[in-house]
Amino acid sequence: MAAPRPALTRSELAGALHAQAARYWDKHPFHVRLHAGGCGPGEIRSWVANRWYYQRHLSQKNAAIIAACPHPEIRLRWLDRIAFQDDGGLADWLALGDAVGLSEEEILDERHVLRGTRFAVDAYVAFCRTRPWLEGAAAALTELFSPRHMADRVQAWRAHYDWIKPDGMAYFDNRIPVVRSDSSFTLDIVLTYARTREEQEASVAALAYKCDVLNAILDAVDYSGGLPS
Question: Cα–Cα distance between 148 and 90 in angstroms, integer?
């Protein structure tokens, strides 16, 4: 019988997780075009409407992680994510919709949500419900890469899309400092509780999977060509 492979050190595992930045959706052609000022109003509205479907499922996937997590101190801290989203985050996203010219009704009834977005987001929630809690936590580590990307988005939108109402940026302005704190906490969880090589590799794979989920959403939005302007 072959000897079990040695576990990675904390620094090696951290490096493997950070390396998944190469798969993050900031490199997707749609986001590259969006940040360069190359998207029309219909494309931006489609992105906002489809991202709503992701936003409104975040509390459900976070609740699934908490339900499976055996550590009370982690459950208590993870609850902050649900509180952020349900006590302001979703309202801020609706304000973003208004800022780009979407009515609250058309966001809430999800008439613009594409099937590719539904498949990707529903699969992500199912992943967090059925996989070990640590893999669900590791999948959330896209937050390692998101603060800079969100800051770049706000700057790009203000520079290139002056038709978007400024108060629509509240979600990003509020989320950036929170996600910086969350990412440090989540990274420490994974580095601490992924003790075997198998757990470590599953955690890296979970983060890679989450990057694929985000890119699948953009594939759908990009292929659709956006909403009528």
Answer: 21
